[in-house]
Model the fold of this input.
Amino acid sequence: MCKRWRDIPKPTIALAHGRSAIGGALMLLWPMDIIPAAGDATFSDPVTIFGVNGGEYFTHAWELDARRAKELLFTGGDVDAHEAYPAGMVNRVAPRSELDATGLELAQRIAIRPAFPLHLAKEAVNRSLDAQGQSVALDSALALHNLGHAHNLKQFDRLIDPRGEAIVRREARDQ
Done:
């Protein structure tokens, strides 16, 4: 599903703010072409606590470098907008009060350009990611994700490890 979103011919923009990009929300955010973020945005992927390797759209090593991706997954910790920006995970950081206007301004600048060359540019970038192995990595990670769910189903009779829920709730309260 997320790979199809990534490959929609038209440019896509998603806004990130607050603690809205946790786990599965990353897989909804990362397929988008442009991501302005508010200064209060944080990104995390605590899913290893639930017995799986990451979201179904596993571009962690492309969004961050490999070591920061591992830290994000191994600890369930956060990457804030100011760290995400130099990593290339978000396009810009704006004050929360200006985020909607920032997204709209980008959309308006893009909307005046001819659709066909935008499609070609997007396709060229996506193909370069695929040439680097992104599509194969996504397919492999999804297979591992499904293996994690199968393991949990066998071990706990649930798709996720139930022990993770209490830990995530406790960590959220402690923040």
